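As noted in the main text, all predictions were made from sequence alone. Below is one such record, for S9 family peptidase.
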Amino acid sequence: MKRTCFTFITTLTLYSMTQAQPLTAPKAAIKPKELITNGHKRTDNYYYLNERENPEVIKYLNAENAYLEQVLAPVKGLQDKLFEEMKGRIKQQDESVPYKEGLYYYYTRYITGGEYPIYCRKKGSLEGAEEIMFDGNALAKGHNYYQLGGYEVSDNDELAIFAEDTVSRRLYTLRIKNLKTGQVYPETIADTEAGSFAWATDNKTLFYIKKDPQTLLGYQVYRHVLGTDPKTDVLVYEEEDNQFYMGLGRSKSKKYITIGSDHNGVSTEYRLLEASNPTGTFKSFLPREKGHEYEIVHYKDKFYVRTNWKAENFRLMEVPEGKTTDRTAWKEVIPHRPDVYLADIDVFANHLVLGERKAGLTNIRVINQKTKTDEYLDFGEPAYVAGIGYNPDFNTNVLRYSYASLTTPNSTFDYNMDTHDKTLLKQQEVLGGFDKNNYVSERFYVTARDGAQVPVSLVYRKGTKKDGSAPLLQYSYGSYGYSTDPGFSSTRLSLLDRGFIYAIAHIRGGQEMGRRWYEDGKMLKKKNTFNDFVDVSEYLIKNKYTSADKLFAMGGSAGGLLMGAVINQAPQLYRGVVAAVPFVDVVTTMLDENIPLTTGEFEEWGNPKQPVYYDYMLSYSPYDNVEKKAYPNLLVTTGLHDSQVQYWEPAKWVAKLRTLKTDNNQLLLHTNMEAGHGGASGRFQALKEIALEFAFMLNLVGEKQ
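Prediction:
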């Protein structure tokens, strides 16, 4: 990550750190624009900041970066120390656990000093000769940003599709490599979807998704034949409803190429084509209908279907091939349970594995198909996350799964589903003297204002006092049904070792407590998300985990919306807030269908062209509700090339806050001028952004070391 500074004085007055007078923050010019929706008028003074190519806009963003550099100059040493500390915990020369698919074992490894993974394989056994398929460090050379968006190996193991992004706009260029000769073929296909491509069994035909460069929605599926001009590729499917997202891949059985269309928690449809018949026609597994979501796993002559048909928390059914559109042929395998959310499935020859959520925690359930007995894996910690891993082979009794907790580093296990033996294959090695026994995790429930029981997962270093004197960072996301699980973070240790308590509030809008938990935190119930977060904050203060002058809040993207809504509602509760790539201009963004991803979000937030949603969204949209009052210290981050939350949302929000806030607290905006929604690429460069966030918070509690 590079920070852009300038030394000349513009109309924005910046003072040297050597001068005694206080720094003067940049102020964006006010240029009122009238916006009228449903007969209601709003005035946006900073609408023009969406002009990405406007030199005045770039100058303003650079000025904000320079101001941040100056304000945080006293803790630059701490920031550098934090970066080196976090980097020092990473085992630089490292390797993933190999998995076997076909004749090869696949794995990734890192070299000392390398920012990016090297993708490798060995034929026959792990003692075989290493083949380097993709060297991320070499591919990234000459680029400020680089992302390998997945790869797919052909059935004969000789060719690989891979996708690259060098701009951070999530528009990937698809290429093809001969793994035997190392040759990268000349044909390139621009504006594709990462990871959404598949080979046919003939080892020369491939399918991919084309994206609209404006909206970034994948909407077309093409067929390409190796060695032909991509301009002649055949369009095989086009999604006409711009509220649907698309994905493409190969079934675990390898028999089918699948196109999945998903309407953001509302509707699903799969289309299938036998991979041995690449010039055939994709056929619908079951036509889409509003309210029905499903996913499928093919095995032998039938499909397993995870479905919410008459089952809010989903159930598992099976149906023979050829009868999938006839729901009278669907047979129930696992019934619906009101207290258990069926989140994931995997199928083996003799076993069925379910990923479930109950009481806010993840569980793995293994069912023996022969004996009809089942068991739940025991993890033995109060707050943790466990998930089904990548298991490409049907004919095995060994399950690969992952596990971590707030105190246990990321771990990969093999579990023998017949003997019930667990084998730890790898646990993330944390350098620098880390000992999990030095840390304590807790889990409890907080009663929200409407009676809902909100789970909270919490971790701190042993010896940390719970008398209100400890600083505490409260984190949440709370949207799209995405569950924020209590996993491990080696970077977080830099806060815990300096006396911080870290808490995750599992608020509504996520799916930790089942599908209803999500439904009660979206659309016209979105305010439950914000209320839950505030109610947890009040509980933590009341029960002396921290105090209002030492409580910090953090969230990113839709979690940044959460931060904006929370500080409008209860700014007095927080000493400081970190809002990363925050979605804060909800109404204006959701009215603009040319902005990437807007149309697919209508079922999450509502369509503001309808008055009922417009009025509700307007009542909580952080940008529209900034007032003349005191706000906490605030660090806002964004990326100039962000494809999901456009940079101008946080920029406008900061500009408006500067004009209206009545306090003298810090208000800082950092724009990564080279990156997008995910921040800097590379395993070390990303740490610099975390070090900035941590230094901001530590400085506010007087921690200089």
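Residues 1-21 have pLDDT under 50 and may be disordered. The longest helix spans residues 55-71. These features were considered when defining construct boundaries for the mutagenesis experiments described in Section 2.9.
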